[in-house]
Amino acid sequence: AQSVTQLDSHVSVSEGTPVLLRCNYSSSYSPSLFWYVQHPNKGLQLLLKYTSAATLVKGINGFEAEFKKSETSFHLTKPSAHMSDAAEYFCVVSDLGGFKTIFGAGTRLFVKA
Amino acid sequence: DAGVIQSPRHEVTEMGQEVTLRCKPISGHNSLFWYRQTMMRGLELLIYFNNNVPIDDSGMPEDRFSAKMPNASFSTLKIQPSEPRDSAVYFCASSSARTSGYNEQFFGPGTRLTVL
Q: Tens of pLDDT along B36-77?
């Protein structure tokens, strides 16, 4: 069985400071992992995906995530937050076919000026 | 490409009425997904299709919900009769899923449904 846990429902940072959004997963096999972002009243957009080619994955808008099998984690980071990063972020695990997807509860990121 | 297209963007209806949500996936994509998003339950996968065939509808909450995909470029999600607890944002997503997996889904803008 697969599951995904986002450890923080809300994260607040100041503009220009680092961002860390935490995600832990559970999977009985090597998972497919994704991070999506949802801006207010918008659909979801893919930030990055883990494809087993490299444990450090770089995505759009300066975000990256590191797959750590020993810790079953896939945390999302960004060195310097921008006001436009304020949104909700979802960690997603899917089965081998990319069909059955399980979304985390989401982490809302607030960026203070 | 215009991306995934959903219509209507907003729907307000009265309890007991039939509601039909529509989705046009990205051309060439052969998998289509319907999701529901609420504050209480977050984002839930309702059903997904591969090559127009429903693969897993275990997320469909009740028999009042039904989904069809008559061809590769169109899908509907129907609720009959609708109830106030069906109020949510419904997203459609598509992907070009291959047997090797790891394919991201492209989401539409969603349909905000309000059942009074």
A: 999 888 889 999 998 999 988 989 988 999 999 999 999 999
Cα(A78)–Cα(B40) distance, integer angstroms = 28
- Please report residues of A whose CB lies closer than 8 A to that of B93: 44
**Pairwise CB contact (< 8 Å): B101 & A49:** no
- Token pair for residue B12? 């307000």
pLDDT at A17 > cutoff 60: yes
Cα of B14 vs its chain's centroid, Å: 20
Residue A83 corresponds to which amino acid? M
- Selected for mutation to probe chain B from A27, A30, A94 (highest B CB count within 10 Å) is A94
What are the residues facing B23 on neighbouring strands? B6, B75
CA-based torsion, B26, B31, B32, B33: positive or negative: negative
DSSP state of B26: P
**Tokens in use for A57?**
């994955």
Cα–Cα distance, B95 to B25 (Å, whole number)? 8
Dihedral (CA of B79, B84, B86, B89) sign? positive
pLDDT (tens digit per residue) in A86-104? 999 999 988 766 667 888 9
